[in-house]
Specification:
160 residues, mainly alpha, 3 helices, 0% strand
C-alpha cells in the first residue's frame, strides 16, 4: 500500500484552533486591562504588575499548545505526519515545562510580586481561556461526513 501526500487535504481542526487563538488573544488583552486596574486598586503598582504578569504567563502557556498543533498540522498528508505531530506537540509541552521552571525561579524572589493578585489573575485567565475554547468549539461548524460501508449483499455476493 502506498501513500501519497495530497496537498488539497487539510485538517478540519485548523480553523477551530486559529479562531481559538484569536479570541484567546482578545480576551487576554481585556483581562490584562482588568487585572492591571484591579491589581492597582488592591495592591498599588506591585499588584498591577503582578496582575499583568499573571495574564501573560497564562496566555503564553495556553497559546503554546494550540500553536504547536497548528504548526504540526502543516505536515498533514505526509507519511510521517503522526510522528511529526507528536514530536512537535511534545516539544511544546517540554518548552512549557522549561518556561514554567524559569518563570518560577525568576518571579519567586521578586519583591514586586503580590502572590495573591498573581495567583487569582492566573486562575481567572485560565478559566477565561477554557471558556473561550468551549464557546469556540460549540459555535464552530466543523464539516463531517456520514459514510455507510457497502455490505456483501450490496456488492452482488450471495449469502446463505
Amino acid at each position: 500500500m502506498t501513500f501519497e501526500a495530497d496537498a488539497s487535504r487539510s485538517v478540519t481542526s485548523a480553523p477551530l484552533l486559529r479562531a481559538t487563538l484569536v479570541w484567546s488573544s482578545a480576551v487576554a488583552v481585556l483581562l490584562a486591562v482588568i487585572a492591571g486596574i484591579v491589581g492597582f486598586a488592591v495592591s498599588g503598582t506591585d499588584g498591577m504588575w503582578s496582575g499583568l504578569v499573571g495574564v501573560v504567563v497564562a496566555t503564553v502557556f495556553l497559546g503554546i499548545t494550540g500553536l504547536s498543533i497548528l504548526i504540526s498540522n502543516r505536515w498533514f498528508g505526509d507519511p510521517l505526519y503522526v510522528p511529526i505531530f507528536f514530536a512537535i506537540v511534545l516539544g511544546g509541552w517540554i518548552l512549557k515545562l522549561v518556561i514554567f521552571i524559569v518563570a518560577l525561579v525568576i518571579l519567586r524572589g521578586q519583591a514586586w510580586v503580590d502572590p495573591t493578585v498573581f495567583f487569582v489573575t492566573l486562575v481567572v485567565s485560565v478559566i477565561a481561556a477554557l471558556a473561550v475554547d468551549v464557546v469556540t468549539l460549540v459555535r464552530m461548524r466543523v464539516p463531517r461526513v456520514n459514510v455507510s460501508l457497502p455490505t456483501s449483499a450490496d456488492e452482488g455476493e450471495k449469502t446463505d
